[in-house]
């Protein structure tokens, strides 16, 4: 099984991004529209944080209300993306190996890593990317 190939072989490069001044409503719409669980937060092309769908769920009380949409809007307006996101995320380079990335993801409590080249965000790699890669390797 090849685990020493660079993560650039499996990372996602067609990125969905948020800016620090975007709203949490926009974030939720992007999560649902693109069926994703993690969105890098950037200032320009520099990553400053990661927002997960779980982060959104933690602040949402919608499950306990009659009018979910109204409650979500009120709650989302109480917070900014910067307040909810994970700041200064662990990053990897495009040349980091799949094994290195798998080790980081297995030891930490998150499931996505931004891929950065010279401080510029170039991709994202998730536990799902790693699992899909490993499943392909089992077919050989």
From TrEMBL:
<dbReference type="InterPro" id="IPR000644">
    <property type="entry name" value="CBS_dom"/>
</dbReference>
<dbReference type="Pfam" id="PF00571">
    <property type="entry name" value="CBS"/>
</dbReference>
<dbReference type="InterPro" id="IPR046342">
    <property type="entry name" value="CBS_dom_sf"/>
</dbReference>
<protein>
    <submittedName>
        <fullName>Membrane protein</fullName>
    </submittedName>
</protein>
<feature type="domain" description="CBS">
    <location>
        <begin position="85"/>
        <end position="140"/>
    </location>
</feature>
<keyword id="KW-0129">CBS domain</keyword>
<feature type="domain" description="CBS">
    <location>
        <begin position="11"/>
        <end position="68"/>
    </location>
</feature>
<dbReference type="InterPro" id="IPR051257">
    <property type="entry name" value="Diverse_CBS-Domain"/>
</dbReference>
């Amino acid at each position: 099984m090849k685990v020493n190939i660079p993560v650039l072989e499996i990372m996602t490069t067609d990125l969905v991004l948020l800016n620090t001044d975007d709203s949490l409503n926009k974030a939720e719409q992007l999560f649902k529209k693109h069926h994703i669980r993690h969105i890098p937060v950037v200032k320009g092309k520099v990553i400053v944080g990661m927002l997960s769908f779980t982060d959104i769920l933690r602040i949402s009380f919608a499950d306990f209300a009659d009018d979910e949409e109204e409650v979500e809007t009120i709650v989302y307006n109480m917070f900014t993306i910067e307040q909810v996101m994970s700041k200064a995320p662990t990053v990897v380079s495009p040349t980091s190996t799949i094994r290195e990335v798998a080790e980081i993801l297995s030891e930490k409590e998150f499931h996505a890593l931004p891929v950065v080249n010279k401080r510029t965000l170039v991709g994202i790699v998730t536990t799902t990317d790693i699992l899909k890669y490993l499943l392909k390797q089992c077919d050989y």
